[in-house]
Specification:
Layout lengths: L1 H32 L8 H26 L6 H30 L1 H14 L11 H38 L10
Helix pairs in contact: 1-2, 1-3, 2-3, 2-5, 3-4, 3-5
């Protein structure tokens, strides 16, 4: 059992970090192409995001299976896939905070204005107290963090469940006489 822990941890970290890097790269591409704030283009982007998620979690589970002599239990698949999704979400959350606070604060204001349009509030362009702006920025970051964390966790769990069920192969019990 102890032999199983080192490869598991190594695979989870390797594919979780790789997943996070791919998500950050994808976010940069979205920013450069103008799809960071766009609502109309998001439906086109959902299949791309979903395929990245499915591919990374499934490939991480498959790598674990290969390193485990082609054996995989559903619990192991859930552990590996869910952990990969959590690490990827953590990296993406850190990137979002850095991006919106440091690199492109104007994007944060565009997102706040977009949110205000959906909620029939006045736009940020009107004079608002500094505390209110800071509060809205923090609320936006908190909301994005929660959506990323819950969304990636749920999706990671579901993908792990499906991929683990497909790839599952248990060791046969040997009878010793």
């Amino acid at each position: 059992m102890e032999n199983n822990k080192a490869p598991t941890k190594k695979i989870i970290i390797k594919y979780g970090v790789l997943f996070g890097i791919i998500q950050v790269t994808y976010s940069i591409i979205r920013y450069l192409t103008g799809y960071t704030v766009s609502v109309s283009g998001n439906l086109f982007l959902i299949p791309i995001e979903l395929s990245i998620h499915i591919g990374m979690v499934s490939y991480g589970i498959h790598s674990f299976k290969l390193s485990n002599n082609h054996f995989l239990k559903l619990g192991q698949a859930l552990k590996v896939g869910f952990s990969i999704a959590l690490i990827g979400a953590g990296i993406q959350i850190l990137w979002d905070i850095f991006f919106l606070k440091v690199m492109s604060p104007e994007t944060m204001y565009q997102l706040i204005n977009l949110n205000d349009q959906f909620n029939d509030r006045t736009a940020i362009s009107e004079p608002i107290e500094r505390d209110s702006i800071m509060s809205r920025e923090n609320n936006l970051l908190l909301l994005r963090t929660l959506i990323t964390l819950v969304g990636n966790s749920t999706l990671g769990f579901l993908i792990s469940l499906i991929a683990g069920s497909i790839m599952m192969k248990k060791k046969r019990a040997t009878n010793h006489k």
